[in-house]
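Shapes recur. Our protein:

. . .
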Amino acid sequence: MLSNSDIHDLTEFRRHLHRHPEVSGQEEWTAGEIRKTLAALHPAQILTGLGGHGVAAVFEGAAPGPTVLFRCELDALPIEELTGSEFASEIPGKGHQCGHDGHMAILTGLGRLIARRPPARGRIVLMYQPAEEDGSGAALVIAAPRFAALKPDWAFSLHNFPGLPMGAYAVQAGDANCASRGLKVVLSGHTSHASTPEYALSPALSLSRLIPQVMAMGPGGAQLDETFRLVTVTHAKMGEEAFGITPGRAELWMTLRTVRDAAMEDLLSAVTAAVEAECAATGLTAEFSHHDVFNACTNHPEATDRIIAAAEAAGVPRCEGQFPMRGSEDFGLFGSRAGAKSAMFRLGSGVETPNLHNPDYMFPDEIIAPGVRLFHQIARDLLG
């Protein structure tokens, strides 16, 4: 188990990472700090540059056995931190307001325990994944040629979660995180002088019609099942910042969200058809582009059972938590694409605390120890 000295070191390491956040795809400094910290643990291998700035440490057991991967994230958010902490972000406009700094500290604590007592068999892979926040990281890591040699049989991850009791966990087999994607629609016509709007092909009325139409296709609701659809309009703009020009161009940005991937395809088709119908009726043209694409995340039942059994053995209390999460995750690709039996659990970061992605959110250091304890028990149960 972790000593008081371990917990002190991991807390300081977490705060060190917190001061220097890097957003998706730019995690070079963070990856370097992780690599230096892992080198002191003397794993059998340290792989760098996986899917960008990804880092993996491989610990070998004495006998053949399965490969168990534990994953955390490297990236921060383009959010100005407003915690007022003495170890707040030193990078303007960027902050660890999702708690990935804490996830890295937890995985590093697991590495300390594994280094002191390697597994009896098989392999343990500590995967520090880049670019989770924009949905690209897991796919890039899995596609990296050197990842093929790791090929995990099991994959586990956690996410700190406000609204759950501090240090308690929640997990459920099946639907775990919603699928989502950003859809940007550009409507094009042509301008005219503002005194003669009849000579323009303006997207103004089309934009005003499409916003409520697409929102009605995804009204959301509390029932998170295969019928769930949510369309959130996140940004819209039209024309130039001028009073003398009738607009000829507009942009509509939206996030589509469903529980399952098949439902996402249906929702995307419906929204696309609505835009195309509007253009056919008005003479506008439309261009579509897709951003921050996340597949649905599903917890494998056997991996979920492993988490539950390990938590009981490690003395980590269980609580109820709404599943699936509305928020999205790319961790599920380690199951659906890499072939592992995978599951993610939530680790409570307190009932009365700001939400994730809020500018005043701060990962609580108190949950580093239970996170390490639960991960370590999973590893011990599977590999001895």
In short: DSSP finds nine helices and 15 strands in the chain.
